[in-house]
Amino acid sequence: MDKIALIVGASGIVGSNLARELLGHDWTVYGLARRPQSDLAGLRPVAADLLDPAALATALADVAPTHVFLTSWMRQDTEAENIRVNGAMVRNLLAALGPKHSVQHVALVTGLKHYLGPFDSYARAGALPPTPVREEMPRLEAPNFYYAQEDEVFAAAERDGFSWSIHRPHTIIGQAVGNLMNMGTTLAVYASLCKALGRPFRWPGSQAQWQGLSDVTDAQVLAKQLEWAATTEAAKNQAFNITNGDYFRWSWLWPRLAEWFGVEAVGFEGTVQPLEEQMAGDADAWRQLAAQHHLAEPDLSRLASPWHTDLDLGRPIEVMTDMSRSRELGFNVYQRSDQSFFDLFAKLRAEQLIP
């Protein structure tokens, strides 16, 4: 049976890696975005605005996917607006596809804010779950756009009869330009600036994150789980955590990242020193560095998202993710987390995104 994928957010960190994974396994792949990429061989671009139902229906007129992968979101100023906008994006898309009766499975990518709370109340003391976080943990009482997205998927599944899966990664590591949540590239850009400007590679986060256990999710590991869940009967209608499968302490990893770039590592010194503050005046320095080394992207804001890296590294607790549910069903992909960073750094350098 033909497998026809529609990836929403195909130019992002999750969607682009998923597109490569599916194309490598003989899927027909459509990539929907406001400005879809056209440089990935085999990907069929679909330009559409998920907030414009009429234009969306027109853009999808000739697209009848069997599988839909929702990997995109839009950041708003408040969580109420996040809920309104991101819920509408999912609702509009599935409403446009409903009359085709082609969709068999919908996969939604969210994240650990499902357990830790939304941006405006993220990881606040007094409302933090025990670790490792597990899929069966109940929703928090705080409003959360992840919950709104899930509810739209559940409602459409009930209406149209498709199966679903929810995927909750933690700190996705992978290559993408213009992504709003990109720790790996942010740290690579920060380290490159430190080296060029003679500054130390200074830990920006909390003591709890520096000393505690943590994990991350390689974008390629997430892509493999997305395909696995979409094609595995036992995985239907379930939510899955997804990380690389190992744990580490930032006090162990930070010096290794510094060594890769040849910069001096400085650990936790008693206070949080946010990257957003450390990099606040670096736009011109990056532009000059890009010109000096003929880099592909001179706009610092298109590569680095220090605000999001600060959220992750500034948390007052360690964060560990339980993977038992998918492991028990046969998903056994594993990736060393330090190697995820090193592979990303090498790719960024090869693509002339860092010097």
Automatic annotation (TrEMBL):
CDD domains: 5beta-POR_like_SDR_a. It holds the Pfam family PRISE. It comes from Hymenobacter polaris. Gene3D superfamilies: NAD(P)-binding Rossmann-like Domain. Residues 65-355 form the PRISE-like Rossmann-fold domain. InterPro entries: NAD(P)-bd_dom_sf, PRISE-like_Rossmann-fold. The lineage of its organism: Bacteria, Pseudomonadati, Bacteroidota, Cytophagia, Cytophagales. It comes from the Bacteria. This is SDR family oxidoreductase.
